[in-house]
Design a protein that fits this description.
Radius of gyration: 21 Å
CATH superfamily of the largest domain: Probable tRNA modification gtpase trme, domain 1
Largest sheet: 6 strands, mixed
Strand order of the largest sheet: 13-14-15-12-4-16
Number of strands: 22
Number of helices: 8
Strand content: 25-35%
Distance between the termini: 40 Å
């Protein structure tokens, strides 16, 4: 098992530690509901140093990143960020990720459980030939040298602003900048996994303690938050979780990720398979709300006594005070407004399909035009 550079701080602050994708991580501190509401109403901080960071350098870096991802990095300006995914040749999703276009390289931020798998797959493809020549790229797994914190909530900008050498209010949604936090160099981006405004901070692990301590010294009522709150927040915002809602057996179209799948760009891995899949979609990832009962992963979904799907993510929303979930549902029962039944042990509870995110009042939706997942 691995430890993030903040492990001792989690213990010191009373974090309840669990094993999570080969890391010891805090599942919660003072309580999941308290942490969720702190992010929704004020500001919270998450240790996300278990995430993977893969650096792509070289003359062909942009073309190569375009070839291995389904979105189009050619549309990015320097320091912009893009949500994307990588697929196998059969269209199955290897991972979803963030793509940062930086002055001399691309930074791919991948899911912790997939870091080694992603790195090996990227290296293998970098060795393949492109138009009778090898890709002029370098691939480096930087993960063990990078600490990452996510400061999220409607008051994140206000509290963080005095701590940086630049005006971080100038960093717009899905943009980043090289900054100094005290004396620490870091990449700061206006991104997150909660549905609220906030920033993700990337810096050398040797500065972990000093950054953590400065945050808690300078930000009043900053709440440390664990994995459980992060999972609820991302579900309320209707963000996919790799391993639950997307995996190697799902394609981007049925997963509602057509908005990041640029089928009109030059060839990329999985393009032909995704084009074929688009013509024969038999199920869709859909969101649903329940007035009674709490859905869990693996629960069956029924329509008129016939099984039509399976829950992939589910739980109780402290913000909305109801059960919410995602699941793959057979076409045409996936459509907004449709009612289905969720099997909970020996009973069936009704659920209503909705197209939008479950929680729509997030502070990050103020004054920015957001890419909304295309759940049709």
């Amino acid at each position: 098992m691995k430890k993030t550079p903040f492990y001792e701080k989690h213990i010191e602050m009373g974090g309840r530690m669990v094993e999570f994708v080969e890391f010891y991580m805090p599942i919660q501190y003072k309580g999941v509901v308290k942490e969720v509401l702190s992010v929704r109403e004020r500001v919270g901080v998450f240790d996300v140093s278990h995430m993977g960071e893969i650096k792509i350098t070289g003359r062909d870096r942009e073309k190569f990143v375009s070839y291995i991802t389904i979105n189009d990095p050619a549309t990015l300006k320097e320091f912009q960020v893009q949500y994307s995914a990588m697929c196998y040749k059969n269209g199955g999703i290897i991972d979803d990720l963030l793509v940062y276009k930086l002055p001399d390289y691309f930074l791919l931020v991948v899911n912790a459980a997939n870091t080694e798998k992603d790195y090996k797959w990227i290296v293998e493809n970098a060795k393949c030939k492109m138009q009778n020549a090898k890709w002029d790229v370098g691939v480096e797994n930087m993960s063990e040298r990078v600490a990452q914190l996510a400061v999220q909530g409607p008051k994140a900008e206000r509290f963080l602003k005095p701590l940086f050498d630049i005006d971080i209010s100038s960093i717009t949604y899905y943009e980043s900048a090289m900054t100094k936090f005290g004396g620490t160099d870091m990449l700061t981006s206006r991104t997150g996994y909660t549905g609220e405004d906030g920033f993700e901070l990337y810096f050398d692990t040797k500065h972990a303690f000093s950054v953590w301590e400065k945050l808690f010294k300078e930000i009043p009522d900053l709440e440390p938050c664990g994995l459980a709150a992060r999972d609820i927040l991302r579900l309320e915002a209707r963000y996919c979780l790799y391993g639950n809602d997307i995996n190697e057996l799902t394609n981007p179209i049925e997963a509602g990720l057509s908005w990041i799948t640029k089928l009109d760009k030059e060839d990329f891995i999985g393009k032909d398979a995704i084009l074929r899949a688009k013509e024969n979609i038999t199920r869709r990832l859909a969101g649903f709300e329940m007035e009674k009962g709490i859905p869990r992963r693996g629960f069956e979904i029924y329509k008129n006594d016939n099984k039509v799907g399976t829950v992939t993510s589910g739980g109780y929303s402290p913000t909305l005070k109801k059960g919410i979930g995602l699941g793959y549902i057979d076409v045409p029962y996936h459509k907004s407004g449709e009612t289905v039944d969720i099997r909970i042990k020996d009973r069936f509870e009704p659920a209503t399909i909705i197209k939008r995110a479950f929680y729509t009042r997030g502070s990050r939706r103020i004054n920015v035009k957001l890419p909304i997942t295309n759940f049709q």
